[in-house]
């Protein structure tokens, strides 16, 4: 083994291990609350190393250290970390909520405006229907004062004949044939509507036995106008079966025949006041009493005072 001699004459064995390098000094950093105060670091070493002074003058370095220290503190305190996250999330979500609120407000405004328009249209429709109904009722009520005037003026018996014959089943009986015309005056007194006129068949009865009938043609009568309607009422080979005693043996003495008859029919008038939306109906039941006289065939028989109108 070789020995090594230092400058002071102390011999050192080369086999000894070399000295361990000196430990690095530990530094303790304290950040004061005031940014204007000078930041200092104090360090010491166990081997009596001289004290070193460090000056921290950069505000950027301080902000980083402050952020680091706050983050470290939040890691140590879970409640602080959760609160910080809540604040950050609330900040970011706040913008979205605000935009969502704006969108919802806009949608609510559009829906409210649409509902308001619907209500306005509905109210306008109700007002229009109410006014139209009132106007129609007024017209309908006014039309009732313009009932048509109907007058059966006369009847003319053209011919009258009774002869022996047989019915469809071959039964022997007297057969009656009659031909007549009825003249009717129809007047529409209305000032603002026309009327459409129809009638049931005009019938001549001897009590319950029908001996003649005829159909009046339908027509339309203008306002404040009148017309005369002539209808043919006739019967051909009507079996009597002995039911008309006054006609027994009257084949040769027709001039002496006096046969009481009833003329009945119904006249219906329909007025279209406002198109087909507003219309009014009038119905007249007419019954006239007339006597068929053989000696007045071909002559007009007045019925103006012999008819009843209902």
TrEMBL record:
Residues 90-101 have a biased composition (Basic and acidic residues). Residues 1-59, 89-108 are annotated as: Disordered. It comes from the Eukaryota. InterPro entries: Lea14-like_2. The keyword Transmembrane helix applies. Keywords: Membrane, Transmembrane, Transmembrane helix. The chain crosses the membrane at residues 120-142. This is LEA_2 domain-containing protein. It comes from Cephalotus follicularis (Albany pitcher plant).
């Amino acid at each position: 083994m070789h020995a090594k001699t230092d400058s002071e004459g102390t011999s050192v064995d080369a086999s000894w291990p070399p000295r361990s390098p000196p430990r690095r000094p530990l530094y303790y950093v304290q950040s004061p609350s005031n940014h204007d105060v000078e930041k200092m670091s104090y360090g010491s070493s166990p081997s009596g190393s001289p004290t070193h002074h460090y000056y921290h003058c950069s505000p950027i370095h301080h902000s980083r250290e402050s952020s680091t220290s706050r983050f470290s503190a939040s890691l140590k305190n879970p409640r602080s970390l959760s609160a910080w996250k809540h604040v950050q999330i609330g900040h970011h979500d706040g913008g979205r909520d605000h935009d969502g609120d704006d969108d919802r407000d806009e949608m609510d405004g559009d829906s409210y405006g649409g509902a308001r328009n619907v209500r306005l249209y509905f109210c306008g429709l109700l007002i229009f229907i109410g006014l139209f109904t009132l106007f129609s009722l007024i017209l309908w009520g006014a039309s009732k004062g313009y009932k048509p005037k109907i007058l059966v003026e006369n009847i003319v018996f053209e011919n009258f004949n009774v002869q022996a014959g047989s019915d469809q089943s071959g039964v022997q009986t007297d057969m009656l044939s009659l031909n007549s015309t009825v003249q009717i005056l129809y007047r529409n007194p209305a000032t603002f509507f026309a009327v459409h006129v129809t009638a049931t068949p005009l019938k001549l009865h001897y009590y319950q036995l029908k001996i003649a009938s005829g159909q009046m043609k339908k027509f339309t009568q203008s306002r404040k106008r009148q017309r005369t309607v002539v209808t043919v009422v006739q019967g051909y080979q009507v079996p009597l079966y002995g039911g008309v005693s006054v006609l027994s043996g009257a084949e040769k003495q027709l001039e002496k025949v006096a046969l009481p008859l009833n003329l009945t029919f119904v006249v219906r008038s329909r007025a279209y006041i406002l198109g087909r939306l507003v219309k009014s109906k009038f119905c007249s039941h007419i019954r006239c009493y007339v006597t068929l006289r053989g000696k007045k065939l071909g002559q007009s028989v007045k019925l103006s005072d012999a008819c009843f109108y209902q």
